[in-house]
Design goal:
six-stranded mixed sheet, Rossmann fold, about 425 residues, OB fold (Dihydrolipoamide Acetyltransferase, E2P), about 30% strand, eight-stranded mixed sheet, 10 helices
């Protein structure tokens, strides 16, 4: 069935939203304000899905996607929308979630943080698949809403040197002893080197090692091998573990990490985000500060350059040990301590046992910080941190936790805003300040 619709809004999967006879229709490839002819492709009880067959009135914000694989590859969903408009949509999503889920409104909207539009993705997990019908090995992101690997020869969100490796990686994997048993190659780009992690389900032969070393020499990369889970990785050439790092020059820090450690994908935006978070938290030289879900110490170590005492807490003992090693490397171990603990299972008594914190930074995964928010609100007013900065990768769980901090804990939501960490995607990174 085909019909003509007016597109009302855009969802975070990059689909236009319209109504036909009162029923919601998600239209792939359409933008808000456009008048388009559509073809219904799938019917559900509460909504339909459709594709655009003809654009009758294009949006002024429509742009030509830079990538020839856009629309098939699932890595990006918004390349057809002007980047500043992408940010405006994400800001609206944040505000709507805060209002409708948390029933809170920030006193001030922070200016959005912008970064590079292209070549920003310094972390990626590339799928590898042997597809004989398409000529052999495919290396790339998966197709949109599919388990198939996109037939990619370039990628404009990856750094140029990584995009240029997509085809050579195909050729390399095809020559290995068991190309059908290599499901993925993980990419981690540091300030000095590109690290590639080869996941292999069967042991590699000596000939395979030689081919990997030859590739590393030719393209200037380092190889890590992963025979089992993420903790099983090791460098193909001993000593390469010291070469992978990113820097936080504002704080004089060099953050060494392993390629499967969690780090932000966008290094330029990460520097901006750390700077803004610390400016909003405003730690004083005599303050005692907590960094919850501290990971590698991305916020903890910068905080230690500004505060008397910082406590970093994270669920992974591997990461907290790595963070402590970094603190020692920079001479900050006298001002910072780390502890490994499951922050999804904490309570008021545990939080009180840590002692009083003047300020707190919270940077949880998508699940948010529900139990921590409840524990904070259970403390007496004088026991709570005066200011909290909450960095979020999920506006829904941020809104939920904000509602608890405001309506139960008596905090005020002073400000909130977005950071366009993942340009051309529906991912919403945000930051909020409570006092």
């Amino acid at each position: 069935m085909s019909c003509v619709v007016e597109i009302e809004s855009l969802d975070l999967n990059g689909q236009g939203v319209a109504h036909v006879d009162g029923k919601v229709v998600f239209v792939d490839g359409a933008l808000p304000g456009e008048k388009v002819e559509i073809e219904i492709t799938r019917r559900k009880k509460s909504f339909d899905k459709a594709t655009v067959t003809r654009i009758l009135k294009p949006s002024t914000l429509r742009v030509t996607p830079a990538c020839p694989h856009f629309g098939v590859c699932g890595g990006c969903v918004m390349q057809h929308l002007e980047p500043t408009a992408q940010v405006a949509i994400k800001q609206r999503v944040l505000e709507d979630n805060l209002q409708h889920l948390g029933h809170v409104t920030p006193e001030r909207i922070l200016p959005p943080l912008h970064g590079p539009t292209w070549n920003y993705r310094y972390r990626a997990r590339l799928s590898v698949r042997l597809v004989r019908k398409k000529g052999g090995i495919l290396v790339g992101f998966r197709e949109r809403q599919s388990s198939y690997v996109a037939d990619m020869t370039e990628c404009h969100v990856l750094p140029r040197q990584v995009s240029a490796l997509l085809v050579p990686l195909r050729r390399l994997v095809e020559t290995l002893s068991r190309p059908d048993r290599i499901p993925q190659i993980e990419v981690a780009v540091g300030d000095e080197v590109v690290a590639l992690v080869l996941r292999h389900l069967e042991p590699l032969l000596d000939a395979d090692h030689d081919k990997l070393k030859g590739f590393a020499d030719e393209y200037g990369v380092t190889w890590w091998l992963q025979p089992k889970g993420p903790d099983s990785i090791y460098p193909l050439i001993p000593g390469d573990e010291e070469r992978l790092y990113y820097s936080l020059p504002q704080f004089g820090l060099t953050m060494r990490y392993r390629p499967t450690d969690f780090t932000q994908v966008n290094h330029a935006m990460n520097r901006s985000l750390v700077s803004r978070a610390l400016n909003l938290l405003d730690p004083q030289p005599d303050d005692r500060v907590a960094d919850m879900f501290c990971g590698l110490g991305n916020f903890t170590l910068p905080l230690a350059t500004m505060s008397r005492d910082v406590v970093g807490i994270e669920g992974s003992e591997t990461l907290t040990q790595r963070a402590l090693d970094l603190a020692r490397l920079h001479g900050l171990d006298g001002r910072v301590s780390f502890d490994a603990l499951n922050l999804f299972d904490v309570d008021e008594a545990w939080l009180r046992s840590l002692g009083h914190f003047d300020r707190m930074l919270i940077d949880p995964p998508r699940e948010g910080a529900l139990e921590l928010a409840k524990a904070l609100c259970a403390l007496e007013t004088g026991e709570r941190p005066r200011r909290i900065v909450y960095v979020s990768c999920n506006p829904a769980t941020l809104a939920r936790d904000a509602g608890i901090l405001v309506h139960v804990g008596g905090y005020r939501l002073r400000a909130a805003g977005v950071a366009n960490m993942f340009v051309h995607t529906g991912h919403v990174e945000s930051i909020a300040v409570f006092e």
